[in-house]
Amino acid sequence: MTTMMRSEIAEQPAALRATLDALLPRVGEVAALAGQTRQLIFIARGTSDNAAVYGRYLIEARAGRMSSLAAPSIATTYKRKLDLTGVLAVALSQSGKTEEIVETLAWARDCGAGTVAITNGGEHSPLAETAHLALCTQAGEEKAVPATKTYTTQLAALAVLALGLGAEVDARDLDRVPDAVEQLIADPGDVDTVVEGLAEVSGVVVSGRGMAFSTALETALKLKEACYLHAMGLSYADLLHGPIAVVDERTPALLVAADEGPTLPGTVALARRVTGAGASAYGVGGGAELAAASTASLNGPALPEWVAPMGLIVPAQILTEALARRRGIDPDSPRGLNKVTQTE
Q1: Cross-referenced InterPro entries, in alphabetical order (predicted)?
Q2: pLDDT for 288-308, tens place per residue?
Q3: What is the largest CA-CA distance in the chain?
């Protein structure tokens, strides 16, 4: 029986094509809104917050604008007004209905920020109607609780945002993303071996750095919510500052990297350190170098680092769905979770 999660993973190439077709013509609108701003804040929770981490690294590394993740409680709980003149506030919500995110974006606008909504909820969703500019993704309805296609289309929208902010990238790289994702769905790598390696453990460390850090965080979240694993998502720099002590024969590491870029050598070195200590290291992406240093590996996309996260997450999604079934869990409906989460 095919799960809804697995079906929605397979819909990602089409969802990415539709989203890019809809949003790339709007780069000029982003540029016009962002022209008077000097820095960005991202407003999000959960999976959307992991997408925002990608946006932060992408815009700082390639567009040269300082970016940060907002603390919504400043707006909703402490109700503190800040001077956000010259700030572009970007709110991400899959549904566009999460009250905390809508309220925080309205607060940012009242504080003087330019505002952008990234949502799959459509132009009439509460979040889209609150923003100066709404970038609506085209993922279609997503029924499985663990987000897949809504996450990858958020990354696509953030890539379009980066283009509007003048990112020093080749926009034509985006044309390659849907096909690369399609290839990963057809051949995600050694999923069965990694599933068996994680089937009986209670915890796993998931690590990446830079552009790939968002993938590590999102993979850890998926393993928590769909497989009930104690999954710790960390930058490998933070991992080396102490938490690496938890990695042992009962706590493997899942290491994520693009096939190129400045963080790849460090990820390969970490894989060698983990396996050298007698623990298992499972690679996600990183090309032949990371695969050779790992116990087993999942394939990554043949894409430049700045767009690689849109593909890197896909084998991790496939792993999560397969591991959930291996552990006797329905990945479509994890316990205690709903599709739309409201935070007090």
Answers
A1: GlmS/AgaS_SIS, GlmS/FrlB_SIS, SIS_dom, SIS_dom_sf
A2: 999 999 999 999 999 999 999
A3: 55
For residue 53, the one-letter residue type is: V
Residue 63 has which token pair?
């567009």
User: What is the reported pTM?
Assistant: 0.95
Domain boundaries, the chain: 4-169, 183-326
Distance in angstroms (rounded) separating the CA atoms of residues 294 and 2:
30
Tens digits of residue pLDDT in 145-186: 999 999 999 999 999 999 999 999 999 999 999 999 999 999
According to DSSP, the residues that pair with 208 across neighbouring strands are: 235
SS3 133: strand
Report how far residue 46's alpha carbon sits from residue 69's, in angstroms, rounded to the nearest whole number: 12
Exposed, middle or buried by CB within 10 Å (0-12, 13-18, 19+), for 118? buried
What's the CA dihedral at 102, 105, 107, 108 to 10 degrees?
Answer: 180
CATH topology of 4-169 equal to that of 183-326? yes
Beta bridge partners of 90: 42, 116
233: left (phi over 0), alpha (psi -120 to 50) or beta: beta
The architecture in CATH of the region 183-326 reads 3-Layer(aba) Sandwich (3.40)
Could you identify the residue written with the tokens 């980066």? 162
Query: 4-169 has which CATH code?
Result: 3.40.50.10490
What's the order of all strands across the beta sheet hosting 281-285? 230-235, 203-208, 253-257, 281-285, 296-298
